[in-house]
Every structure is written in structure tokens, then in C-alpha cells.
Amino acid sequence: MNTRDLSDHTPYRAGRGIEEVARDLGLDPESLVKLSSNENPFGPSPAAVEAISGHAERVHTYPKAAHTDLEAAIADEWGVDDRQVWLGAGGDGVLDYLGRAMLDPGDSVLVPDPGFAYYPMSARYHGATVDQYRLERSDDFAQTASGVLEAYDGHRIVYVTSPHNPTGSEMPREEIATLAAETDSETLLVVDEAYGEFTDSPSARALVDERDDIAVLRTFSKAYGLAGLRLGYALVPEQWADAYERVNTPFAVSLIACHAGLAALDDDEHLERTVETVRWAREYIHDNLAAPTWESGGNFVLADVGDGETVAAAAQEQGVIIRDCSSFGLPECVRITCGTRETMPEAIEAINGVLD
Ligand SMILES: *Cc1c(COP(=O)(O)O)cnc(C)c1O
Hints:
Helix content is 37%, strand content 15%. By secondary structure, the chain is α/β, with parallel strands linked by helices. Bound molecules: pyridoxal-5'-phosphate.
């Protein structure tokens, strides 16, 4: 038999893992520095690790109470009602829930180009067609309401990433408010704040009180260091918050993920150390990389190295894994994730050696 026609669907290409690269190069995984997937170089919150082992013996039970508790804790953090928190298996899982709740077959969505590959994938699974709006390199990938509106034509969902992956640019909250106001009342604006902890700019969360057509996406994968656990959430307007019960996969977030998330939310020390180090590392990269870089609000920096594929491959030979941005449509660029004060100097030196 055959699957349905999936020719419009493209597989997601993740950055390569340390073990994979080490095996290919015949190197010790310990000797490699992975700066390709925007992961937390400090690892998970230690409190989360403790919660994970502490609840291991409870995994024969469904995560009913844990799910409720995590929703309540996140709601408390943001000052919204518990129902306005939609948990999912990573931010990606939550994008699917928003698609399930909003998209009818034949609807269209608008995504950024360059941009995050899962928006179009998720929208297509839900029968939607995909159009793009451009972030222009000549404008340093600036994000404005008018830039998006140029391409807007009544789309059902418009995705905005701020801080943006892979460029690091941001859409100021006033611009997001303008964009929401200028689009139809039946257009949902998804503001993806996967990197929200790393910027000083305010969250779009306040707009969720004012409007019923904005959802804010957050994740535990980046600042909290829980990418492997798959835990994310959306803050959605009260008006349609109840739709979650109709679209979510039962127990989509595991018992372990719920407890780890609860512990991580309480671990301010890990979060502060992570954010502080990212700020330092961004500056370090801007100041020391022998290639032009762009301002970034995220835990990564985009750099113009001329030929991203060649430079990433050569850096990898030197034990530094960075992300070639060809798949984002930026073949001249690499994206370098912020590492620690211990790893960055050597890593940047190795990349500079390659650029030489
Ligand atoms: C990492 C990322 C996400 C969410 O990733 P999850 O691991 O699924 O939570 C969402 N959007 C962007 C732009 C990202 O880079």
C-alpha cells in the first residue's frame, strides 16, 4: 500500500548530533563542541534532573495531576487562567495543536522566509497551503508589520518568530500589535518566542489579554535546557482556550516532562546563569569572529562566512559543530549557538582558523 500523497511534505533536517559527527570523524565525542542546535550548554536545570529521577518509579501512571499542576504553574508565572496554557510535546507539538484548532483544508498560512521549517510542515499536515513573507538581508532581516502585510492576503495563520531563528532579529511589540490590528479578525497571529528568555524586549503576552487573535509560543527546549524532554506551551486568548480539550492528543506531555518542567520553572539560578552567559557569548562572537555578524536576541548568532556549507564542514573537522544555513535559504551563512566561557574562545578560534 501507499501513504497519501506526501510529495508536498519535506522532512525536518535537524542539526547533527555529537555522537553522529564523532563516529563519522573517528573522534572522541568529548572533544567536540556542539554549537549547531541552540541547545543549552549548561545542560538541563539540576532541579529538573532530580525531578526526572525522582518520578521514574511513577511512570506506570498517566500524568493527569502533573499536567494540571504544570498548567497552573505556567498560568501563575504569566498571570493568565490555567485554561489559557496549552501544553504540548515541544513548541513543535503546540504548533500542531494550533493548526488543529484553526485550520480547515484549503486554508492558507503565511510564514517567514528565511524561517523555521516546522511552520509550513505543520500547516500542510492540517491541509493548509503556505505562502511566505520575506525578511530581507538588505534590511538586516528587520521585522516590521508593513513587511509582513505586503505579503498578507487574508491568511488564517501568520507566524512571527521573535527573536527570529536563524537571523536573531526581533519584531518590536508595537509592530506585533499593529500587525494583529491590521490583519482580519479571523487571522491568528502566532508569536513564536522560543528564544524569548534571551532578549530584553517585552513578550507579546500582554497582547493576549487585549485581543483574541494572538497566541504566544514558548518552550522549555532552549533556556531551560530540556530539549530532549519535548515540552512547550502556548498562551492563548480566553475566548477560545477551551478548544484545547477538543484537539489535544490525550496525555501529550509525559509525566516526567511535567515534573521536570515544574522543577525547572522554580530553578531561577539555572535560568539566570544561562541567560547571562548567552549575553556574554553573543558579544564575544560579535567581537571576535572574523566574519560579519548580525545583532541577535537569541542564544545564537548568524554570521556571513561566504560559503556556509564549506565553513561548517571544515569547522567540524576541527571539532566545532555549527549550523550551515543553506537549508534556511542563506547559503552564505552559518549560525553559531552561544556556548560557555570555557568553550567559546577555542571554538571561535577554530572557526577563525577555517575562515583564514
Ligand atoms: C527551537 C524552536 C522551537 C521549538 O522547539 P521545541 O523543541 O519543539 O520546543 C520553535 N520555534 C523556533 C523558531 C525554534 O527555533
